[in-house]
Amino acid sequence: MSLSFSFRSLLAIALLQLMGAAVWSQTVAEQMVLGDQFDRVFQADKALRHYLPAQQLDPKNVPLMLRIARQYRHLMTDATNDAEKLRLGGIALDYGKRAAALAPNDSEAQLSPAITYGKMLSLQGSKEQVQASPRIKVAADKALRLDPRNDVAWHVLGRWHQVLANISGLKRTLGGMLYGTLPVTTNEAAVACFDKAIAINPKRLRHYIELGRTYAQMGKNAEARLFLEKGLAMPNLEHDDRELKHRGREALALLP
Q: Among residues 175, 214, 233, 234, which one has the fewest Cβ atoms lying within 10 Å of its Cβ?
């Protein structure tokens, strides 16, 4: 009798645990769906109201962590002062790093920290910039090994080449003396990366604008104008497109 009672008790507990797990999973999934609705219309603060509670329930959910990192990058773009941008970027970076550690074979997870490092770069001092440079390269390279058709990874790698190719000899020497050696690369390497990004996903205006800006650095004004104007003529589809178009218009205005 006691054995039967004990068995029924254990069975009841097991059923309750299964039901609890189902409700828990459903709640996380539902919160993600609700957050995605706001993510699609670039309302990061509202998306986080759903993503953050879901992440508390499922702290090792990598797709959820990547979504959260993206929202903080969006908030970073929208922030009005550099200190707040860096604070939000730091939160995004933390979520991205954790996602990358949990999913070493996920291209998007490996790329997330590199995207955030890149957004923070212009706000940081020389020491932080030099330290971030190899981290961006390593993350982008790994993301591409995992998925050679990750157009955003090609874009990030293109920006890495573009920025480093434009560093003056004096700044490179001083940076190397104080903080460590900066890699040497070329604008041609950046062009190759942006070309690959466009071939994979021709609907992202960022690829065209940064390709145009690279050609401007090279003094190839006709090519620069062509790609800048193409990117500027495309519709805004992503959160940072407005900021990228501003950068594109500035570059276009400087062309002779």
A: 233
The token duo for 178 is 């104080």
Query: The pTM is what?
Result: 0.86
Q: What is the pLDDT along the chain (256 residues), one digit of tens a residue?
A: 444 546 565 665 555 455 444 434 558 999 999 999 999 999 999 999 999 999 999 999 999 999 999 999 999 999 999 999 999 999 999 999 999 999 999 999 999 999 999 999 999 988 888 889 999 999 999 999 999 999 999 999 999 999 999 885 545 554 554 455 678 899 999 999 999 999 999 999 999 999 999 999 999 999 999 999 999 999 999 999 999 999 999 999 999 9
Give how many domains the chain has, as a whole number.
1
Q: Please give the single-letter amino acid code of residue 76.
A: M
- Positive or negative torsion for Cα 14, 15, 21, 24: negative
Domain for residue 18, yes or no? Answer: no
Give me 152's structure tokens. Answer: 């955003």
